[in-house]
Amino acid sequence: MKQIIQQIKNLESINSLSKHEQLVQGIINAIDEKMVSKGDILPSVNTIINELGFARETIAKAYKELVHRGIIESKNRLGYFVATDDVMQELKVALLIFAFDIFQETFYENFRKGLGKNVHLDIFFHHNNFDTFENVLQSIKGKYGMYVIAPIPNPKTPNLLKLLPSNRVLLVDRHIDTGEDYNYVVQEFGDSSYNAFVQLKDKIKKYDEIIFFFKPSSAEPNEILNSFKRFMKEYDIKGVIKEEYESGSLEKGKVYFTIHNLELWEMLKDSKVKGLKLGKDIGFISHNDDIVKEIIFDGVTTFSTDFSEMGRKAANFVLHRKKIQEIIPTVLINRNSL
């Protein structure tokens, strides 16, 4: 009984977590960590009032939610009891990612499949908007057993993540310095991008110039931009950075690099209209691989992490809670577009 009370007290340090949320998550944590088992009685309403000072209405609301979720059960006049040892069967997972591009859909499909049928999954999107990111975190805190989050690189993000218990958070896609010992399964953008450019340098030098489309203050990683600048300087590559592609502006003798798929599709269309042969008259490099880029125009050269593997590893962590801090390698895939 004292262990359950302590689990609830341990959540007091989490910023902005309501007493109702503390109570729900504290009991889930106690069951998940085998402090209590199926059939064990839980603290009475009066015990929680005396030990923690919570309002009777708050406790009743929390117990009602746990009963509704099938985690505990109420026995008439006897109190509340643990209904299942397998909290994972009732586990609710929140997934917060950037958007639903093809590569993120690949991550999601493998993550969802890896979790299995007995895990409830809700998905949220922040679209690299910090206000949206904050609002979503505020709305989901204390309501889920696990949180899988693609964080926004922002000075305020570390403090915002403290709304959630760190041992129940997995960071995916991007790793940021939080000062906390979070679990993560992410990709790396700086060295991996630079190495990809270096491996492609001989092919790039066949062309007059390389053009990189990069939008400042967007979801695009600044590490890729810095790697591109470093590559041009160290290998004396003629290149230019533009914010976006203008329809019809494609020129023979140039290499085009974009992170955005819609931009790539438009450039490929223009190359067809102008009769430019990929890998000879014009070159293309794209970030984040998918099956379409493998097939279209006999293949587009990409460098990309394995989002399928990222999804599988994220699911494995959620199910087994075994510590993970892993960077999924970025792989260069040479195809006919360069």
UniProtKB/TrEMBL annotation:
Protein name in UniProt: GntR family transcriptional regulator
InterPro entries linked: Peripla_BP_I, Tscrpt_reg_HTH_GntR, WH-like_DNA-bd_sf, WH_DNA-bd_sf
Keyword Manganese tagged: no
Molecular-function GO terms, alphabetical: DNA binding; DNA-binding transcription factor activity
Keyword Transcription regulation: yes
Record domain HTH gntR-type: where: 17-85
Source superkingdom: Bacteria
Keyword annotations from UniProtKB, A to Z: DNA-binding, Transcription, Transcription regulation
Organism: Flavobacterium rivuli WB 3.3-2 = DSM 21788
CDD domains assigned to the protein according to its UniProt record, in alphabetical order: WHTH_GntR (cd07377)
